[in-house]
Amino acid sequence: MSDGNRHLDADALDAAALGQPASAETTLHLAECSLCQAEVDDLAGVVSVARAAEHDPPLTTPPDAVWEGIRAGLATSTPSRQPPPGGSSASAGVTDLGQVRRKAESRLRFLPLLAAAVAGIVVGAGVVALVGDRQQSPEVLASASLGPVAQGPADGQSGVAEIAVVDGVQMLSVTTANLADPDGFYEVWLLNLNTGGMIAMGTVPGGAHQTLLPVPPGVDLAEYRAVDISDEPFDGNPGHSSVSVLRGDLNT
Amino acid sequence: MSATALRLASPSTPLWDTLPMVGVEGEIGAAFAAGDPVAVEQAYQRWGGLVYTIALRTVGDPDDAADITQATFLSAWHGRASYDPARAPFKSWLTTIARRRAVDHLRRPVGVREFATAEHHEGGQPDIDHAEGLVDRIVVREELDSLGEPARTIVDLAFYSQLSHSEIATKLDMPLGTVKSHLRRSLNRLRTRLEGSRDV
Ligand SMILES: [Zn+2]
After folding, report:
1. ipTM of this predicted structure
2. Which residue on chain B is closest to A14 by alpha carbon?
3. Closest C-alpha among B29, B23, B58 to residue B42
4. CB-closest option in B38, B66, B191 to A104
5. CATH number at residue B198
6. pTM, to two decimals
7. Per-residue pLDDT tens digits for A65-75
8. Which residues fall within 8 angstroms of residue B184, CB to CB, at 6 or more apart?
9. Is B6–A86 a contact, with Cβ atoms under 8 angstroms apart?
10. pLDDT, tens digit (0-9, with 9 covering 90-100), for A169-205
11. Are residues B101 and B192 in the same domain?
């Protein structure tokens, strides 16, 4: 690399790894830049394994005896009874398996919601509404009204952010209204306004939606007291783009 | 919920990079590591097929594959204290154990190997590199099959139909940026999985 030229962006690296025709500029850069070429080689290795696997047969289901053997092996080392596989998954409502199992099931019932939230799937309205059918109602720790930021557009977009404890897990609910389609994608951040520290929380779509995102344990909410939504370009750079669209202070 | 299940790799890491640690896989892994025996059943239901297929395609003999599968889950259970969710997603950790056990099986002296196994590898001497390649393909194929839509369709068009980003966008009537970001995420996810399953 010389003259301050930028490295190839992620899309160009992907395209090269996939063997798509490259521009002269890309070809030239790859010839000169061992970093980018190494990344292309690495990705191309993944593509090559996937292409080799195209016509491989699906996974083989093990015979029932395999689980029986594992269960027998477990029985010698754990006091808890083991249910048979397949028929009784976590959702099958087994009730007589003791404290450990009940605890685990209580955790696992939360999984579809958590998985959906992590995938950025939009559900319901309000943390309380989102988890409304749970036995334990969530404890709201902090909330923020989100408004336009100086460098962002200000055409009526707004939002509300809420942090609540759901089954002992801190979740951030982000509800937006009139959010224009992003140039790239919207990323939600927790901000430490004293230190400038930022934590990437996940993405939210444009428009009017609600998204539930897990808050990493150990985040000091006395320090991270603002929520920010930025428009992030697809440039492979995980840092903040500096284009904030909505922001608000968290009040407890 | 264990404290490690939701840990992000670094403050600026995009959330999707840490997905394996926060979803169902992270939950089961955390419960497993915490010594919850129910997690063994959960893990087996999800990944028993993956472990068994790795064993079966590596050693060839169904009985040996069954033994390796059982040994994989039981040794994972007994060695659960060594599982660090921050270092590897749970499925990758399990895959690593299965891979190691299957390859160890191939490395046994020929005299110890059962007749069926030796026969399966017609050359007589099993090819470890070939086995490693097989496991890579199983791991990647399983991860491909776990991609949601539209990521899977986009990946199929890019990998197998060899369409360009813009050709895919046109074909699926989708913004180019969406196609690019799905491909990027999928490629990274496959790479993370592949690398994770190779760690020892
Ligand atoms: Zn470069």
Report:
1. 0.80
2. B184
3. B29
4. B38
5. 1.10.10.10
6. 0.56
7. 999 999 998 88
8. A10, A11, A14, A234, A236
9. no
10. 788 888 777 788 888 888 898 887 767 678 888 888 8
11. no
User: Comparing A11-20, A113-122, A184-193, which segment has the lowest mean pLDDT?
Assistant: A113-122
Taking the Cβ of residue A24 and every Cβ of chain B, the question of whether any pair is shorter than 8 Å is answered with no
Q: Of all helices (H) and strands (E), which one includes residue B107? A: helix B90-107
Domain for residue B1, yes or no?
Answer: no
Lookup: tokens for A119: 């995938």
B137: containing domain:
17-146
Residues B138 and B66 in one domain: yes
Beta strands in chain A, from DSSP E residues, in sequence order: 139-148, 158-166, 169-179, 185-192, 197-204, 207-214, 226-232, 244-249
| A222 pLDDT above the threshold of 60 | yes
Range of the domain at A43: 10-52
To probe the interface with B, which of A107, A136, A166 has the most B CB atoms within 10 Å? Answer: A107
Same domain (yes/no): B130, B117: yes
CA angle in degrees (0–180, nearest 5) for A104-A118-A181: 160
Q: Which of A140-144, A241-245, B183-187 reaches the highest mean pLDDT?
A: B183-187
What's the full length of chain B, in residues? Answer: 200
Q: What is the mean pLDDT of residues B64-78?
A: 95
Tell me which of A190-204, B17-31, B70-84 is least confident. Answer: B17-31
In a domain, A166, yes or no: yes
- Asked if B23 and A114 come within 8 Å (Cβ–Cβ), the reply is yes
The CATH number of whichever domain residue A203 belongs to comes to 2.60.40.200
Q: Is A89 in the B-facing interface, judged by CB distances under 8 Å? A: yes
CB interface of A with B, residues 52-71, below 8 Å: 52-54, 56, 58-63, 65-67, 69-70
Tens digit of pLDDT for each residue in B109-160? 654 444 444 344 444 445 777 888 899 999 999 999 888 889 999 999 999 9
**Chain B positions in Cβ-Cβ contact with residue A105 (cut-off 8 Å):** 38
- For residues A192 and B37, give the distance between their C-alpha atoms in angstroms, rounded to a whole number: 40
Q: Distance (Å, rounded) from C-alpha B100 to C-alpha B87?
A: 18
Indicate which CATH number applies to the domain containing B67.
1.10.1740.10
Q: Name the percent of chain A lying above pLDDT 90.
A: 23
Q: Into how many domains does chain A fold?
A: 2
Average pLDDT over every residue of B52-61: 94
The encoded tokens of residue A152 equal: 């962002």
- Distance, in Å, from the CA atom of B21 to the CA atom of B65, rounded to the nearest integer, reads 28
